[in-house]
Amino acid sequence: MDTVTVLLGLLSIGLVTAASLNVDQQKLQLANNGSIASDLASGNSSLNSTKDLPELSDDDNCSSLVNANSLSQTELMTRITAGCRYDRMEPPVTVNANGEIEPVAVYARFYINALKDLNSSDLQFLLQGLLQLRYLDSRLAFAKYAPSRQQPVVGESALREKLWVPHLFLNNEQSSNVLGTNEKDLLTSIYPDGTVLISFRLQATLYCWMNFQKFPFDEQNCTTILESWMYNTSMLQLHWETANPITFHSQLQLTEYDLDGYVCNESVSVSDAFTMTHGALVGNYSALSFSVLLTREVGYYIIDYFVPSMMIVAISWVSFWLQADQTPARSMLGCSTLLSFITLSLSQENNLSKVSYVTMSEVWFLVCTFFIFGSLMEFAFVNTIWRRNNNLELKKRTTKYIVRSTFVPKLKRNPRSFNRSHSSMSSCNKIGGSNHNNNNNNTVITIETPIIIGDGLCRENSSISLEDNNASIGSGSTAQLTDTPQAEKPPQTFATMTPKEVSLWIDRKMRFCFPLAFIVFNAIFWTLVYCI
């Protein structure tokens, strides 16, 4: 029994000694990795973890960062981004002195190479450029491991896949992709202090909500919105670079617009159960936006639309110099000008999106159509007057009386007027002729005698007495004319115009009214375009 007891005691001492040696070896290995240090001076055998180094890990297989100056870029980044030291699923947030989490600040810069295909019908435009993102990730700082390495570590997609990168998206995109021939044009740079710079060439088709109320004299603001997708403002905040956040290529040219500049903005997008801009995530998300200010070039529209339309409207006025009875010429001229202008307008309106409000081009189209249609209706009106058989009786040859008599003609004739359609004297009124036994057998004829007074006509009723001395008037007997006193009506001054004269008078007035009205319309139209 004593022998067995001695052997068990020796075995226990050996096991304790072996365990102690294993712990010491583990201390030395972790101390070389820089993650765990042993307090040998105090003689305490417990392990003390340090929080000032980002390489805290319980993995025994972490590669050492000793002599990092001799490592290649690939080996250095592989050891720094190892799973025991770096978690690419976690953002590089920091905690301030108050214990509050400070969000990651991501700074953006956009270099625009091309801006084209501003489609008015689809409300889209194509953007090509270089997007650059900059942020600080202290976990990737290698200055303390490789102090002699001053140049940044540069890599492409393989390096980016090892890092945490902010997930951003274009809020108003229709489609987008990263450009590249063999591989995606994506460049990742890591500086010694942990600053990460990600650059990639981007092509995106974006929606631009255009306003065509002043088309084709409109100014458009096409906006590009860059927004955080996964992290809200408590974890990530986006900012524009203070120096040159947006730059354009020196040879950038637009075919239909002039580039007037840009406007940058930083905002916050709210996602809730109603908007659902970020799926099931609810919160405030940081967003960046920049608007490109564009002014449409009107030279094309002036030459190809406005000047030809003015000429077509002026051609329609040629009918005012043709007589009202020239129906084929005037009707052909009016219809051809109207159809030509409609064809011109439709070819121009096909390039514009169908909108619910009235544009300036539509105002121009409607008014010009009214002028052309008005000249055609004027011909129909004067042609109707031309074919009238009755003259117009006017008090004066003024516009007021001519227009009034034209629209409301006095077709009732004076019953005492002389009937010019009969050449026989048998139509004359015989006064007292019905009494054949009357000794005074005289025939009285009332004739309106026109007397020209100034611009008007004065007509007097004269009574002529023909004494029938038992002789027939038709046989050439001599008649005795006697004037009767004018006691029935005082003399009245008035004028008479034939339908042809009225038609010509209307055409002469329209030769000035139509051009004058069109000039007034142009003055109002171009004032609204450029002054409002």
Explain briefly what this protein structure is:
With about 525 residues, the chain is of the alpha+beta class.
Q: Please provide the ordered H/E string of secondary-structure elements.
A: HEEHEEEEEHEEEEEEEEEHHHEHEEEH
| Secondary-structure class | alpha+beta
Distance between the termini: 115 Å
Number of extended strands: 20
Number of helices: 8
Shape: rod-shaped
pLDDT average, as an integer? Answer: 76
**Major pleated sheet:** 8 strands, mixed
Strand content: 25-35%
Provide the fold topology.
Layout: H1 2-33, E1 36-38, E2 47-49, H2 73-80, E3 94-95, E4 101-102, E5 104-119, E6 124-136, E7 153-155, H3 157-160, E8 168-170, E9 173-178, E10 186-190, E11 195-207, E12 219-228, E13 236-240, E14 246-248, E15 257-271, E16 283-296, H4 299-316, H5 327-349, H6 360-386, E17 392-394, H7 399-407, E18 442-453, E19 456-467, E20 492-497, H8 499-531
Parallel strand pairs: 5-13, 5-14
Antiparallel strand pairs: 1-2, 3-4, 5-6, 6-11, 7-10, 8-12, 9-11, 10-11, 12-16, 15-16, 17-20, 18-19, 19-20
Which key phrases capture this entry?
single chain; four-stranded antiparallel β-sheet; alpha+beta; 532 residues
